[in-house]
Predict the structure.
Amino acid sequence: MSERRIPQEVRVGERNVGPIDASLTPRYGGAATFAKLPRIDQVDRADITVAGVPFDSGVSYRPGARFGPTHIRESSRLLRPYHPGLDVSPFESAQVVDAGDIAVNPFNINEAMDTVQAAALDLTADGGRLLTIGGDHTIALPLLRAAAERHGPVALVHFDAHLDTWDTYFGAEYTHGTPFRRAVEEGILDTEALSHVGTRGPLYGKKDLEEDRRFGFGIVTSADVYRQGVDEVVDKLRQRVGDRPVYLSIDIDVLDPAHAPGTGTPEAGGMTSRELLEVLRGFAGANVVGADVVEVSPAYDHAELTGVAASHVAYDLVSLMAMRHEAELEAGAVAEAALG
Ligand code: MN
Ligand code: MN
């Protein structure tokens, strides 16, 4: 028997098709789209698209993030339609869909990046927002290229144990440790509004930090989050971003390995999942135009810890996008009424 899908009422605009009704079909049964949302071919429009990129040919240590999208979807079955922390029903406020996985070449990084960029442009052709689930962090570069093509150079808040602004590794320019250096070099980031959050762990040398600063990044370390607290950190980050179009990139290794063991380059002393979610919720109202959750490597996961953390991070990102989408619809309706 097919799964029951009940459309829900919306306050603004047309009716959006929400997740499969968990009171009619148990959430642990059936195919796992993200949050049991409709597939892109089941609805006629998408305000927010979730897409997977099963790619990990850019990793420098443990592989396996190519299985991340499937794992995050499987771990997202328990997500419910109302977000009390942000007071939003994201799937009512916006039409959210799962576009499946982008078919990338695992043997050719440049070709894979081109495929991701083209798919991202295609999925945002009608002005919608895109959340990508990875995949290793290499994919942030083509996603930022696509975001910049739509919006001009974007602000970036990058959550990660690592800087990911290294130059080359074994002579390779495009790896999961280099996307943000390449992005600065390509002029696709707004260098007035770049932040790393949650960095920690040993570096190759002090030069790593000096170069990173030269690119324009401000750093909120994992220790800063603990010492200063979430509110102060959010104030600082929001001030930097303002109302610019912002891209949020979340490497799941920003979390402590106790909260996210299933990742490729774990570092001790990370943020808790509570801290990360609270910092993300501090972006309520921000113009989040794109986001990713990357570096989930399920073979190293235990008890779905990393999958659940990543699916909740993804849910919060969708919620932020849905809030902004609804606010823009309302502002548009007010402007139209004023024109009369
Ligand atoms: Mn990392
Ligand atoms: Mn990273």
